[in-house]
C-alpha cells in the first residue's frame, strides 16, 4: 500500500491535469458537441462533478473493519478505468443533462472535490470499508479503494477531454 504522501501527490496532479484539460476550452467550445459525437467538454466536467460531489459523505459515513487488504480492488479499478479501448456507459445518477454549463462554476466544484479528498486522505484511516454506497461492479469499497476510484475515473475523463476535437 502506498504512503499517504504519494496518494496526496497523485490526487493533486490528477486534479491539476483535469483543471488544465477543462481550461483548454473557451466559452464557445466548452458546451460544443465534439466532431466525433459524445458528450460536450461541459458534460464531461459535469459528470465528474456529479460523481465527486458527496464522496466525502461516503468516506465519512458508516464503515466496518475490512477483511483482507484495503487495496485489494485497486488494480482492478485501474485496469478498468485506464483501459481506453473499453467503452462504458454512465449510471443514470451521474449522467450529465444535455444543457449549457458554466465552466468556472464546474472548475470551482471540481477543485473543491480534489481539495476535500486531499484533506481526508491526510486526516482519516483509509482501511475501513464504506457502507454508505455500493459501487456498481465493485460493491462496497474501502476508503482507499474509493480514493483510487476517483483518481482513475478522473484520469480517464481527463484523457477524454484532452482528445476532444471539433
Automatic annotation (TrEMBL):
Residues 11-161 form the DinB-like domain. This is DinB family protein. Gene3D superfamilies: dinb family like domain. Coiled coil: none annotated. It comes from Pedobacter chitinilyticus.
